Amino acid sequence: MKNKIIWPTLTAIWILVIAVAAEATLMGSRLMNEAGISLAAGEVNRMIYHIFVIAGIISFVLYVVLKGAIKKITDPIEALTEDAKKFKEDQYTHQLRDYDIEELQNLAHAFDYMGDELSGTIRKLRHQKAKLESMFSSLEEGIIVIDKKGYIDETNELARKLLGLKGNIPNNCHITHLLREEQFVKLVTEGLKTNKMQVIELKIGEYIVYITMVAVGRSGKVYEYLLLIKDVTQLRGLEEMKYQFVSNVSHELKTPLTSIQGFVETLQAGAIENKEVAYRFLNIIDIETKRLYRLIQDILLLSEIENMDKQEYGDVKVASVIENCMSLLQEQADKKSVKIVFNEEQSLVIKNMSEDHLTQMMMNLLGNAVRYTDNGAIIITTQENSKQQIITIRDSGIGIPEESIPHIFERFYRVDKGRSRQSGGTGLGLSIVKHIAKLYEIKIEVSSELGEGTCFRLILNKENE
């Protein structure tokens, strides 16, 4: 910068000196000619030489003076320029300096103030950005921000997960290039075109997602668009379960009610006059009524357990519960010549569990074992080690097909529908067992072989007690 000022200045001075010297020489020669005075060529040259020497001295002095003056201006400016370059490296403060020129000193103070303000603003912006990113990533909805043309600006992790997007999204990527579902493309196209809220529900891979697209702006001017992506997979699954449950309950209630209604109408039509027929019909009505009562009781019990939180209970002696259940089922087992054997290898006491809940579990498991065993034995074993308490119920019944084992704990699922209804089963027993086990963090293991029997193992970790 200094040379850009000094050398043009000196060049201009020299040009001026040469012009003055030439003009002076010409003017002097003209005056002397008019006066009749003549100068020798040597004298003229000396005069020109003196002029150039004086001009050189003046130029040197002027160079020194200009250089010093300009240095006082350029050095502070260069220092401030270097400090400004450090802003890129997040260095917003610089060494305070004293300058002779008041204006430069004021500029330096203004520069310091600007650096402090900028540093504070940058810190606040980074804090806000970190907070927003944290909120952005922890939202229970996926979010995608796109510009007015549909190009992606921001996404959170949940949005990428729900849409099945893997890896980093490239810059300047249009939203429709990532997901080419026809309905999704239509949603984005309509949203960009009309600036009105658009909604769709899509199944993408294993997820069912509800997508809302809204415009963001003020006074009718749109700045960007938000795509809110909500995972409704579980909600739709629950709705389907609710529908299936209502459908199954309706069917299960309708079957005994239809039977009762049919026999009542027959009795009303005159069959009541025949005592033998009337007694047989009344006996069937009694059986169906009790079955209906058991079904309603099981539905109420299942609903109660599903909505229950674990509470503080006392200790339960497992042997006492098992023996009570055996006595209740003994008559039914004797009719089928099935032995129920209790093999107490270790005496178990389960802490903090409702005795009624353990009784419900054992009655349902033992009841199923008796129901599906035509001969042989049912063996109950209790064991304990340093970490676990284990109750095993093994029967020699008809067994469960391998493909049915994952479904046996579902409501109203029956492996053998005819046999279950004939024996009075409601189809909810194992579902009740599953929800009680879930309440107390009891693991259930099932193994079975067709024609050989089934084994249920209830495993309770002592640390969960």
Polypeptide structure, described:
- The chain is of the alpha+beta class and 465 residues long.
- It has helices spanning 2-35, 41-85, 102-138, 157-162, 175-178, 182-194, 233-268, 275-306, 318-335, 355-371, 417-422, 429-439, and strands at 142-146, 152-155, 198-204, 207-218, 221-231, 316-317, 338-344, 349-350, 376-384, 388-395, 442-449, 453-461.
- It folds into four domains: 1-132, no CATH class; 139-231, 2-Layer Sandwich (Beta-Lactamase), CATH 3.30.450.20; 236-306, Orthogonal Bundle (Helix Hairpins); 316-464, Heat Shock Protein 90.
- It contains twelve helices and twelve strands.
- Strand 9 (376-384) and strand 10 form a beta hairpin.
- The longest helix is centred in the first third of the chain and has 45 residues, at 41-85.
- It is elongated and about 170 Å long.
- The two termini are 83 Å apart.
Which tags fit this structure?
56% helix, kinase, 4 domains, 5-stranded antiparallel beta sheet, 5-stranded mixed beta sheet, 465 residues, elongated, phosphorelay sensor kinase activity, Beta-Lactamase, transmembrane helix, Helix Hairpins, alpha+beta
